[in-house]
Amino acid sequence: MKTTLITIAAAILMASAAKAQNLTNTSWTSLHNELYIESDDGKNYIKGFDVDCYTDGGGLRVAEFKMKRVSQNVFAEVDDDGEVGTLRYKLLTVDCPKTGKSEYLSHETLDGKVLEILVKYDGEGEGFEQMRIQEFFDALNGTYTDKDGKKYVFNNNEFTIDGKKMTITPEPIYGSYDKCFSTDDGNAYCFAISETGINLYTGALDDCNDCYYYPDKLWVQLRADLDANQGRWQFTNQKIIMERHLYRYSKSLLRLMRNEIYARHGYKFASADLAAYFAKTSWYSPVSDNSKVKLSALEQLNVSIIKRVEDAMNQKEIDEGEIEKGL
Predict the structure, then answer these.
(1) Close Cβ partners of 215 (under 8 Å, ≥ 6 residues apart)
(2) Over the chain (327 residues), what is each successive 10-residue block's mean pLDDT?
(3) CB count, 10 Å around CB of 211?
(4) For tag attachment on the chain, is the N or C end more exposed, with fewer CB atoms within 10 Å?
(5) What contacts 181, CB < 8 A, 6 or more positions away?
(6) Are 114 and 204 in contact (CB under 8 A)?
């Protein structure tokens, strides 16, 4: 399948009605960077701050900036003399099955190259932490089987092994929800995403002042059940993907993730490996004419975000499967 990087503008539902939205006292995050908009006169200038992104959702205002509203929902960065710079923000909205209408800011160059997607949030530390925890669960959620056919199900904070349920709690490493969790039966585990599913390790406690868990010994290798939820990555059609979340995956898995979005709509793949991969599922039914395949605005947006990370990996801007450090 030939995929082009779509512009974010093509991936939206209409952002708002005739009246431009006032953004005073709003917070935005990509889970990597934060933006706080302090004031918006609704006509000309917005005053805001770039914020150092702390893992607890707090932060230190590090750079004040001004933006000029150049159209209803487009804001161009300006210097102290009011001269328009080379960057802008677009305020857009998509419908998300999981979170409802979700606003986001597309940070981009004047020629439309998207640099970052930031979603609106409540600006409080607890809300930020919950977003990070949900990102952790999204990486883990799914139905899996081991080599003996035993079923393992992760559904947010519930972990079920052959019908036996337990509650899990993500365990941070230096404030970052990375790969380890504890269970209410007193055990701890860590996970690593594999090409076919996930590998679970027993969690060992590091003997230090912070005392965090780290992977110790391989406990079980699990294969993802692609039929259980119409694919492996349901979050891609439920909410806006945070780029940082995608750093957990390899290029090959990101390619499958992106094309799974198309496969749910029956896209007929020209690539033999993709056609064979999805043909193994019970839910994939290719259409006769790909022009009939219509992605939702949210799906189009997420396709573009995944593709941007793939391109960054190809250009060696980030490493495969590497979560950014210090977050």
Answers:
(1) 179, 180, 190, 192, 201, 202, 203, 204
(2) 39 41 86 84 76 55 80 85 84 88 91 89 78 92 96 96 95 80 93 95 82 90 94 93 90 96 96 96 94 94 94 74 41
(3) 9
(4) N
(5) 136, 140, 168, 169, 170, 171, 188, 189, 190, 191, 203
(6) no
Residue 317 is predicted with a pLDDT of 61
The distance from CA 12 to its chain's CA centroid, rounded to whole angstroms, is: 17
- Tokens coding 114: 């998207």
Compute the C-alpha angle 266/269/273, nearest 5°.
120
223 contact partners, CB below 8 Å, separation of at least 6: 144, 145, 146, 196, 197
* 168 three-class SS: strand
Residue 312 CA to residue 327 CA, distance in Å, equals 19
Each domain of the chain, given as residue ranges in start order, spans: 8-123, 128-224, 234-314
What is the tens place of the pLDDT at every residue in 225-284? 999 989 999 999 999 999 888 988 999 999 999 999 999 999 999 999 999 999 999 999
Cα–Cα distance, 107 to 37 (Å, whole number): 14
